[in-house]
Amino acid sequence: MYLTSLTICAAAQTPKPPTDLRIILLHAQHLGAHGMGYGEQSLHELATRIQPDDIPALIELHSHKHWRTGATFALASQCQASIEPTRDAAIQHKLPFFEAQEIMDLIAGFEACSTDAKEKATTLRAELSALSDADQAKTAAEAKEKTENDARIQRNGLKMLDPKQAASLTRQEREEVYHRSLKAIGLDENGPLTPQQRDLVDRMYRTMVLGEPSKPKPQ
Fold first, then answer.
1. Eight-state DSSP code of residue 53
2. Beta partners for 35?
3. Sorting pLDDT into bands at 50, 70 and 90, what band is 35?
4. I want to staple 42 with a disulfide (CB 3.0 to 4.6 A). Which of 28, 139, 158, 190 is the partner?
């Protein structure tokens, strides 16, 4: 007989190790129209076998593709206890926003969750949607800015081929071209370098940033 309300044991329990959680998730699958999977019956079973202390481990387990769906249902089975951790995990990009919204949808539709938990999950689902839109807009803006900066540095790099145009560049613009050039040849001025590489880096800095004339290689 299924639970009509989610009850949590008052006694402190030790979080289950990932191995035990994976076994529980496997056993919570049932044969359906599309083969083995998770549904309402899984939520009821997981509610009795998962505890709030398992939530951090479930969020970690969610990052593994094979266990993602099971972890989603297990998190939803904890109703109120999973709401804030799921929100925080989405904001920290430990969970994709759309999958955090799916957890909220499951909580809102799970009969064993309290009315308060269902209402909170519904509200938070809308908040997650707005956060997702804002995050996508930020990512797009950052990508656009990076593309524009790359193009600007590339143009400045071409200017440095002409002494007259190079003279119009600021010290910062020269340093940007210098660092881009180092990256292009796979060198890091602060990383481990052979004596020959260090000499090359020093020469590039003097000519590209300080504007010193390049010295011809000895015959």
1. G
2. 32
3. confident
4. 28
pLDDT of residue 11: 42
Global pTM reads: 0.67
Closest C-alpha among 75, 86, 77, 108 to residue 6: 77
Distance from C-alpha of 153 to C-alpha of 160, rounded to nearest angstrom:
11
Quick one: pLDDT band at residue 82, thresholds 50, 70, 90?
very high
Pick the closest to residue 117 from 211, 213, 6, 207 (CA basis): 6
Give the span between the Cα atoms of 85 and 165, in whole angstroms: 55
Instruction: Compute the distance between CA of residue 22 and CA of residue 9 in angstroms, rounded to an integer.
Output: 22
- Three-state helix/strand/coil letters over 128-182: HHHHHHHHHHHHHHHHHHHHHHHHHHHHHHHHCCCHHHHCCCCHHHHHHHHHHHH
Is residue 82 within 8 Å of residue 76, measured between CB atoms? yes
Condensed to tens digits (0 to 9), the pLDDT of residues 155-199 reads 998 988 888 888 899 999 999 999 999 988 888 888 898 999 999
Residue-by-residue DSSP string for 67-124: GHHHHHHHHHHTTHHHHHHHHHHHHTTSS-HHHHHHHHHHHHH-TTS-HHHHHHHHHH
Who has greater pLDDT, 17 or 215? Answer: 17
Region label for 11, one of left (φ > 0), alpha (ψ between -120 and 50) or beta (otherwise): beta
Closest CA to 100 of 111, 88, 116, 109: 88
Q: How far lies 102's CA from each of 48, 126, 129, 189, in Å?
A: 21, 11, 11, 46
